[in-house]
Design brief:
Length: about 180
């Protein structure tokens, strides 16, 4: 067998394994109906998301790192609060990247992994961090980016990330009474 054919066979096997992993990840609506990608989050929007997340973190005295990426997973904005453990910097970015690239909260991966058994194969999913704290940023029905938070317990990271998303929710105007 030639080196090229060996390489092609290895690539084909990798693709098949990857597709198998993707198809088994998360039985939620996130996995069933993928949300389309939209235009990338703007720097202004990313700063607003980080500011809202920072308010939640400071309210609870949680030292966290907060990352916002675009839909392709590239960093748009980042903030590390005082006294945040240094390891959380990369973890926050990886949570955001995972959430953007796979179009779902990282908690979906954590929950799937927690079921054990055949779900342990999720550990081999390339560039996926199965720890709560990453959320897609959906604006006008499309994914424009994701937020990742790290520094405290993963449930608390998720709470800070969710607070960051609140700033982009559309305002509901009171309906006039007839």
């Amino acid at each position: 067998m030639t080196r090229l054919s060996s390489l092609l066979r290895a690539c084909a096997v990798t693709v098949v394994v990857f597709l198998g992993l993707i198809s088994s990840v998360g039985q939620s609506a996130w996995a069933q109906t993928p949300i389309p990608y939209g235009e990338a989050i703007s720097l202004e929007q990313a700063k607003k998301v980080i500011a809202a997340a920072e308010v939640e973190a400071k309210k609870n005295n949680w030292p966290v790192a907060i990352a916002v990426v675009d839909g392709a997973g590239f960093l748009v904005a980042f903030q590390r609060l005082d006294n945040t453990q240094l390891g959380s910097v990369k973890v926050a970015i990886q949570k955001a990247e995972t959430s953007a690239r796979f179009r779902r909260p990282t908690k979906v991966f954590e929950d799937t992994l927690g079921m054990g058994g055949a779900n342990l194969k999720i550990l081999k999913l390339p560039d996926a961090l199965p720890i709560e704290g990453g959320l897609p940023i959906v604006h006008e029905g499309k994914i424009i980016g994701a937020i990742g938070v790290s520094g405290v317990k993963s449930t608390e990271d998720g709470q800070v990330a969710a607070a960051g998303l609140e700033v982009l929710k559309p305002e509901t105007k009171p309906q006039p009474k007839p």
